[in-house]
Each structure stands twice: as C-alpha cells, then as structure tokens.
Specification:
Layout: E1 8-12, H1 24-34, E2 42-46, H2 56-62, H3 64-75, E3 79-83, H4 93-99, E4 101-103, E5 107-112, E6 115-120, H5 130-139, H6 142-150, H7 153-173, H8 176-179, H9 183-192, E7 198-201, E8 208-214, E9 217-223, E10 232-237, E11 242-246
Parallel strand pairs: 1-2, 2-3, 3-4, 6-7, 7-9
Antiparallel strand pairs: 1-10, 5-6, 8-9, 10-11
Helix pairs in contact: 1-3, 2-4
C-alpha cells in the first residue's frame, strides 16, 4: 500500500488461517502484521480469522505462532478489534487475552476519524438462505455452544471437520443469489443506523464497493476479500478517505 502521510486504520476479513504455520496464507498474514499493520492506528478483523475454531484449548495450540504475532502487534500500540465469523464464533476469553484483540458485537457501529461506520461479518445479511440462517441461530445459542465445548477435544475436532466439509458441499450446490447478502437486509440495517453511510463486511469473498440509495441518501457497502491468493482489505485514512486495496499494493 502506498504511503500517504496520514494515519490510517486497516480492516480485514476471511483470512482463514490454517493449523499449519508454514501455509502460504499464514505466512502472508504474518508478513502483513509485521509490515502494513505495524504502522496502523488500529486493525479490525471482521470474522473468519481462522479456518476452524472448536475451543480455546485447541486453537491456542494450533495457532500459537499467529496469536503470538497478533499479541506482539497489540503490545506495540496498535489497537486490535475482532468480530466472530461463521468459522470461529467459539473464541472465548482465553483467546482474546492471548491475542490482545478486543471483541466486538456481531453488528457494531464504530466511529473512525469522525466517520460513523457499520461493521459486521456479513453472514447475518445473507437472509435469502433461510436454511443457513436457521443453522446459524442454532449454533449461536449459548447452551448449544456450552454443550459443544464440554465435548472431548477429538470429538470437537471431528464435528468441526465434518461441518466444514458439509459447508463446502452445500456452497457448491447453492446459487450465488442465496450465498450473497440480501439488498433488503442491507437497506434495513442502514435504516436502523441512519447516522452511518458506510457498511463494511466480509464473508462473501467478493471484494467490491457498492453504492445504493436508502431514504434518498447515498450509502456505501464495502466488501472485503479473502486471502486466496491475495487479500483485499480496506484502508481508512484519517482524512476519511476509504480505499479498497490489495496487500500487494505499496
């Protein structure tokens, strides 16, 4: 990313870190933390940081290299914030403490450099996929999560891998119409937060900048990309400029 002379904040999503620290995605993310992110005021991670998270007791071991790098960045003075994704919503207090990331609610309204922004992972906006939304509500129920985390490690890993494979199979059988966000849900979210002109999310892996009219006002929807093969991230400058960039741009 090019130097601008202004301070900035970075927003990323859908890194999908793998348990193998030598994986190209993991290596690219570590490099990002040590370069671009090192000079930011803050870094927001909007869900699916990990390919799978089935408990802090497992994840803190499998991803110790990446978590240590996040903590080092936090300790250097960069503020870190994170949302749950559809792959890693079981992160708990041990993870937040180990990484230095501050958790945010599923749909958060934050103000950066005087600019009000709506942040979410994005899966909650895919309301056309009613089957997925039913499953999401079930899996997010506190008692379901508590029961799952009581299971032995091997059982949790087996269930997680089976669900991961099932998700891939289901995605291949669905049209993009059902997997993308709903315009109705996006408009409703803007109407519920009229002070925000910008919505930023991931999940769909379709990086883009969309403009729409809500109550005769221009609104902006920014979609972050995944990290396969390169990331599409959002850079917000202190002068309120928003730029969707690749991590390969300098």
């Amino acid at each position: 990313m090019s130097a601008s002379g202004t301070s900035y904040t970075l927003l990323v999503a859908d890194i999908h870190l793998q348990p193998d620290p030598s994986h190209p995605i993991n290596q690219a993310f570590i490099h990002f933390l040590e370069t671009d992110a090192r000079h930011a005021d803050a870094l927001y991670i909007l869900g699916d940081l990990f390919e799978m998270w089935v408990g802090d007791d497992i994840g803190l071991v499998e991803y110790q290299t990446e978590i240590a790098a996040l903590k080092q960045l936090s300790d250097s003075g960069v503020r870190l914030y994170g949302l749950y994704g559809n792959r890693d919503f079981l992160m708990r207090e041990a993870f937040w403490q180990a990484s230095g990331i501050q958790p945010l609610t599923d749909i958060s309204c934050v103000t950066l450099y005087g600019l009000p922004l709506l942040l979410c992972h994005g899966d909650e906006l895919c309301t056309e996929d009613t089957g997925y939304q039913r499953m999401r509500r079930f899996l997010r129920h506190p008692w379901v999560q508590r029961l799952f985390l009581w299971l032995p490690k091997k059982r949790r890993l087996a269930i997680g891998n089976a669900m991961r494979q099932g998700s891939k199979t289901a995605s291949q059988q669905k049209t993009m119409h059902y997997m993308d966000v709903s315009n109705t849900a996006v408009e409703a979210l803007f109407k519920a937060h009229p002070q925000c002109d910008h919505l930023i999310h991931g999940h769909t892996h379709q990086p883009a900048h969309h403009q729409l009219q809500v109550n005769q006002q221009t609104k902006h929807r920014w979609v972050l990309g995944d990290w396969r093969p390169q990331a599409q991230i959002l850079k917000i400058h202190s002068d309120q400029r928003l730029m969707l960039l690749s991590t390969t741009e300098h």
